[in-house]
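Researcher: We plan to redesign the surface later, but first we want a full-length starting point. Tokens attached.
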């Protein structure tokens, strides 16, 4: 299984999908920075799997990697298959290039990568893994059960998460947001983020972070992060969402360059 995992990691990388190792039999990253360490460099991939040959294989989602719709199976608590069927009947899943069965009884549907942010519809047991996310990929195993490809085609199209949200939760899709914010008004973004309720917290954080990133206001971003933390969002999700906002607004490289210059 280890040789197969290593070879598959190289195959994904040749396809242009950045990969990285996760803990053996688990989903936690085996590198310091997780999906931020993902690479298509065969030398880096070889070093990782020679050093830890038993690790699972993960793909960083979002362009240049794939976007992935995660259909969860939560047993008595419910599953995402009804919502998946509704999306399929609406034609929103026509672009799926691969379907993977997950160890927990759910599915991963792979689409062409995009610059969309990650999303979640807890009531429908669906997760959307795009920029700032990752998924375990075949032949990884959890609890002794593997991820398995059950269908595949050479080309894949995209999945429009806004359309998915609009179909399944139109009330959330149209949730009010502040009107256009000028630079002098950025201090109000944190207060707005802190008023968001569960189900809209991550969307609200992303919108506000984009506005602050567009203005290059690091103080406002720090305040927005603190406000998101006060709503109960975990630090890891906050960091990933703000990083997605930087990428979406073209501020990621500039921010990294500033940190390097200051170090």
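Model: Full-length starting sequence:
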């Amino acid at each position: 299984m280890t040789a197969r995992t290593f070879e598959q990691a190289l195959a994904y990388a040749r396809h242009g999908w950045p990969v990285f190792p996760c803990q053996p039999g688990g989903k936690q990253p085996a590198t310091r920075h997780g999906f931020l360490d993902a690479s298509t460099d065969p030398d880096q991939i070889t070093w990782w799997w020679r050093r830890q040959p038993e690790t699972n294989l993960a793909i960083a989602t979002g362009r240049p990697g794939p976007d992935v719709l995660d259909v969860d199976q939560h047993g008595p608590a419910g599953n995402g298959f009804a919502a998946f069927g509704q999306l399929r009947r609406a034609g929103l899943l026509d672009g799926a290039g691969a379907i993977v069965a997950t160890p927990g009884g759910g599915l991963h549907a792979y689409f062409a990568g995009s610059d969309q942010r990650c999303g979640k519809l807890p009531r429908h047991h669906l997760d959307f893994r795009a920029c700032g996310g990752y998924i375990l990929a075949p032949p990884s195993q959890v609890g002794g059960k593997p991820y398995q490809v059950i269908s595949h085609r050479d080309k894949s199209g995209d999945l429009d998460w806004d359309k998915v949200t609009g179909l399944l939760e139109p009330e959330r899709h149209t949730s009010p947001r502040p009107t256009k914010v000028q630079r002098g008004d950025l201090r109000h973004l944190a207060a707005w983020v802190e008023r968001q309720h569960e189900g809209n917290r991550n969307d609200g954080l992303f919108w506000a972070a984009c506005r602050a990133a567009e203005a290059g206001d690091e103080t406002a971003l720090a305040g927005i992060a603190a406000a998101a933390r006060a709503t109960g969002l975990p630090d890891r999700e906050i960091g990933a969402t703000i990083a997605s906002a930087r990428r979406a607004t073209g501020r990621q490289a500039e921010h990294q360059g500033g940190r390097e210059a200051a170090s």
